[in-house]
Write a structure and sequence with these properties.
Shape of chain A: globular
Largest sheet of chain A: 10 strands, mixed
CATH class of chain A: Alpha Beta
Largest interface: B-C, 41 and 50 residues
Number of helices of chain C: 6
Radius of gyration of chain C: 18 Å
Number of domains of chain A: 1
Number of domains of chain C: 1
Order of helices and strands of chain C: HEHEHEHEHEEEEEHEE
Structural class of chain A: alpha/beta
Radius of gyration of chain A: 17 Å
Strand order of the largest sheet of chain A: 4-3-2-1-5-8-10-11-12-13
CATH topology of chain A: Glutaconate Coenzyme A-transferase
CATH topology of chain C: Glutaconate Coenzyme A-transferase
Oligomer: heterotetramer
Number of helices of chain A: 4
Largest sheet of chain C: 8 strands, mixed
Helix content of chain A: 10-25%
Number of strands of chain A: 13
Order of helices and strands of chain A: HEEEEHEEEHEEEEEHE
Helix content of chain C: 10-25%
CATH architecture of chain C: 3-Layer(aba) Sandwich
Distance between the termini of chain A: 11 Å
Chain lengths: ~220, ~220, ~230, ~230
Amino acid sequence: MKKWDRNQMAARMARDIPEGAYVNLGIGLPTLVADHIPAGREVILHSENGVLGIGPKPPKGEEDYDLINAGKEAVTLLAGGSFFHHADSFGMIRGQHLDFCVLGAFQVAINGDLANWHTGAADAIPAVGGAMDLAVGAKNVIVMMELLTKAGESKLVERCTYPLTGARCVNRVYTDLAVFDLRKDGVYVLDWVEGMPFEELQQLAVVPLKRAAEARTA
Amino acid sequence: MKKWDRNQMAARMARDIPEGAYVNLGIGLPTLVADHIPAGREVILHSENGVLGIGPKPPKGEEDYDLINAGKEAVTLLAGGSFFHHADSFGMIRGQHLDFCVLGAFQVAINGDLANWHTGAADAIPAVGGAMDLAVGAKNVIVMMELLTKAGESKLVERCTYPLTGARCVNRVYTDLAVFDLRKDGVYVLDWVEGMPFEELQQLAVVPLKRAAEARTA
Amino acid sequence: MIDKTIATAAAAVADVHDGATILLGGFGTAGLPTELTDALVARGARELTIVNNNAGNGDTGLAALIGAGCVKKIICSFPRQADAWHFEKRYRAGELELELVPQGTLAERIRAAGAGVGAFFTPTAYGTDLAKGKETRRIGERDYVLEMPIHADFALIKAHRADRWGNLTFRMTARNFGPIMATAARCTIAEVDEIVPLGQIDPESVVTPGIFVKRIVRVRHAPQSV
Amino acid sequence: MIDKTIATAAAAVADVHDGATILLGGFGTAGLPTELTDALVARGARELTIVNNNAGNGDTGLAALIGAGCVKKIICSFPRQADAWHFEKRYRAGELELELVPQGTLAERIRAAGAGVGAFFTPTAYGTDLAKGKETRRIGERDYVLEMPIHADFALIKAHRADRWGNLTFRMTARNFGPIMATAARCTIAEVDEIVPLGQIDPESVVTPGIFVKRIVRVRHAPQSV
């Protein structure tokens, strides 16, 4: 059994974004999704600092830091892109106009609760950014994360112990071991790494898993 | 004694608008104010349908009905003008960014209550437009009206009998007989037509009047 | 390839269903989506709720829709016009419900729907008959009325230029309700004077980003003056 | 003749008083009014409340203002940064109050102040620690938190072009908070790359109409890349 690496996770997620979708990619791992959109498929990327139609990174030396994404990295604009101010940008988010947002997470609960903004440590400087807006706003709230912590504990949990970013908001979780669909009647596995028996995945994830009807068999 | 005509009323009002003021002029009599802004004084006219910097009427035959004011008359745009949508336009109004709005009225009460949208007649089709937004929004809510109804009753009243457009919102009233400043401690007359004794004005207006310290003497 | 172009106005409104709530752009003749409105009359869906600044006048456009008996309710700020006879006749006959909303509150309620705001307090109409029965609150030194968003199934608007992603620009005061209505409907349909290649609209000057627009239709008639 | 041009950044912020609430534009380095911020540090007003997306980083700009002990409170969405040491030191010492607000709620609260909205219900942060103690309400099928506007005495923003009436355009994502902050302060001051003759900004492309702007200052340094 070989875990999916970061690019494989991003590619697996990108595969599920249909042509014409409006997508916000969070900082870090989710940003990689942009590089794996299948060729010829038009997907329109949004960044909450006020831009739609983000293109590839600019060549080195051609960065213009008036054109950045939410991670404050220099980006480019595709033909058809547009700029708008923060209230309009978050109106798009909160008003449920984005088809997908892809976020990292500390924990996701089986009811869709998301914890990704604060470890709850007493001395941590709290910082939230746009995470809570995205969590309530996008039509599909997607999480990308490694399934297990470094200590080997599942980040897919019965109930979040970290402070919540949003309640009952996550639809789907892409991990390095499997893809989980969070439904009203439980957590469905859509796909998992080759060579791993479903039972082993179940043991690692701890929370009760079901095989989706459309899932491949291991 | 000779009443001020409509142009004299408009000129009297226009005199009190300082350079650089942002002004919304209502339909009808208030629209005339635009023609009487003293030469060389820059005043920026707003119309609630989404334009700042309205210029004079277009020459006949050059009307473009994509460029209209709130009265749906063709207008022109000055250099420096701008267009914006209705939410932004009424944000300007409600957010107290306009220095003046000038409205017509059925009645104004001495506490500043304004009635200008509905006669209260049971069979009338009600219609409000932007009057209520302007009434609460402009820094100075100015009324221009004839002081008396056709039946000779004062439209400056102790208490409005017509349905209100806004409560305690009017600052000043320009009429064909006098200019009234509505203050917390009473109605002050700033100016009145030549040849009319103050006592006669008081009789016509009915509500108790005071002479403003800065008023000219008759 | 994304292409939101629809060949005809009729095709663009073909799925407007009975009972739909429709945001209809325009103030005066500026920004009225006349071809989409004509197509809506032809479509013949019934029991519609229409949101527009006015209530139609003359015999065309919204007035024709009312005349055809398609409209159950109008939400507007200014239904009274000398030639608003179709509205007036049905309103007086009790066949047409009217919800009268101050113009700025109408705009803000539409904007709230598009921006995911659940409700908001506005000072407009406080202390007037139009606030009767509504929740009020004193905040700071001003009194406010609580107002609810106006969500819609469809928005029919008129824009000037579009590209295949649905980005829009408008012409002067024809902008009026278009940009906010585009945000507040599940399906926004824009009729436009011109469809230009992607990238020809300056990204700094896009007024309505394509994310808010599902369908664009090029008008057949010439714009009134360009 | 209206002319909102001020000769220097120092003159533009000369009346910023102790205890003022200041909206400070920018996200990343895009849209940061660096010369106005430097002038504000030099001005030395104390007990300021600063509203910005972040809490300063490095040793310049907002960080310098904090370092100089001018700031009493920060309202922001994301104070945590590797080099936000000025903020961190004073925050941990209890010398600096922090009001943490989700980014979209921050934007909407500023927009509400500018648009005369008294308060609004937002779904953001419902059920989280950032909604603790706040009024909530279920409206339709969503739960909301009541949020208040953020009014300010001054807004300091960075724009691209201006004319003497104060009309503004912005450069790409440097637009960010500028247009909404401009609406929410009693006195909005914009530093700009260029002041052009009246009429040279396309009226369809004005992002911030001059009504929201009291003062414009042309920056002395060259823009980072045009």
